[in-house]
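Bench log, entry 3. Co-assembly request; chain sequences pasted below exactly as received.
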Amino acid sequence: MATLKLKGISKIYDNKTKLKAVSDFNLDVEDEEFIVFVGPSGCGKSTTLRMIAGLEEISEGEFLIDGKRMNEVPPKDRDIAMVFQNYALYPHLTVFDNMAFGLKMRKVPKKEIEKRVKEVAAILDLEPYLNRKPKALSGGQRQRVALGRAIARDAKIFLMDEPLSNLDSKLRVQMRTEIIKLHNRLKPTTIYVTHDQTEAMTMATRIVIMKDGVIQQIGTPKEVYDAPANVFVGGFIGSPAMNFFTGVYQSGSIQIGEKTIPLPTEFQSILQNYNGEEVFMGIRSEHISNEKNNSVSNDDYIVETQIEVAELTGAEQMIYANLEGQNFVGKIDSAKTVHPGDYINLVFQLKYAHFFDKKTELRIN
Amino acid sequence: MKKAYLIPIEILGILLALIWLSPFYLMIVNSFKTKKEIFSDTLKPPSTFSFDNYIQAFKELDFLRTFGNSLLITICSLVVIIVFSAMAAYALSRMKSKVATVIFFIFVAAMLIPFQSVMIPLVTIFGKFEMLNRFGIIIMYLGFGTSLSIFLYHGALNSIPKSLDEAATIDGANRFQIFWHIIFPMLKPITVTVAILNTIWIWNDYLLPSLVINQQGMETIPLKMFFFFGEYTKQWHLALAGLTLAIIPVIVGYFIAQREIIKGVSEGAVK
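Structure output for the full assembly:
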């Protein structure tokens, strides 16, 4: 289908302030990839997508599709299809005409249009609604029409700007699966924008995490989850967010408040330059759990703590507690009955800990 | 069962309708009377129904030609007002520059200028360009009609999300195609409003045509109607017959377009 290359892309809205909405964005997208841009609101992910689409001018840098410079190419000639957050269906046209519009504008023969629209409608279960107007459709159906409009075009690149954010949570999960299935089937190069890290984790072949217009990390869902590049990524990816403790590293152990926690030996070489310095220790909630039979290893650290809040989510329970005044969340079996105020021994599986520089907030490797 | 409190409202409604319709009654009833009969008793029905007044009025008004003039001027003015206002409002609503805002406010401010204050220089200028004819008056109506129309269109356009323009851009449409295929059809309710307001005004206008096209063969209905009101005699019987003739096409037109008009107005929900 297509490869994309973004070289040092920046977006400056106001030439006086020179404030960059997107700054030095570099990314190579391989053919058939499903890239997800994720980040909090205002981080520049939609702006980047709109620059790729050609709806926003690129202030600095170069954008290439299949090796050809696209900066000055109008959107219609970039061979892209886009799904918008509010669907952007043409309200006065029927579902059929909505899906056929792009083809009509490209002067595709009528018979061909009819064939293609019907094929797409069949894929998306939209056949019974072809003569309806968008007003007469449910949210999920409208979303499918918006997808259908993009698919019918048979474009090389699909751009999706938070396409699921207007749907209720159940439908969102369902549509998420449908989009993944569609991608597996049609294999277009896709760029998907969302602020929902779960969507990013479940859909992406690679995730681009952004903050304040700057890329924080690019990697597969597993990479960004297992080895976050900085404190922001650690806190943003994963639910609940990663727990962070501030402590002082002291030859082989970390001092958090009054407690001295011995670290597994592999961290000694990593942290050798930080002796006597404050660092952030990050640990995910699934690595803080209750004592299970024979499951405690030498690297683990057991601490008795008082439960502040316990939330049963079904298969597991979230435990909100604090260690030396620093709040954290742990996960324990749902089988264990606990109440707020109870004391419980929690096991910190320190071999899964992450360390970050206190000043730069970057990962210490 | 009808609720008791509705009865006074209904009576009031019927009374208002009667008051509203009373001029029509007077016009139609008196159009069948002789001049003498009108002055002896205005309210009573005519003693004999004769279409003589109508035939005479039809001839004296040169009705077909006059009606044709009115129709031509109204329709042409309407088309240019709608096309230009909608396109201008679209451009102004989508451009986010200060210039666009200033231009928009100039248009809105123009609504406040009384026609009487500009009519003499206007006619002088148009006279110099030899445009005191039907074409000239259409241009004038465009000038006077666009302010309000742009204002109305602009409001409606602001509620149409920009993502529709963007979706159409990506679908391969150019600015004109986006406007004609996507935006303009969505403006139908406003177009109907603009059309009604301007039709009423242009169809009934007397002052502007009297200044611009007051020549044999070019007159509109309101102009020609004044031939029945001489300095010394007022031919009410003919005038009323002429007026009845003049409103018949409008009423017929309304009934034909009624469904479309109501549909247009009620389809206003732009989602």
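The two ends of chain B are 38 Å apart (CA to CA). DSSP finds 13 helices and no strands in chain B.
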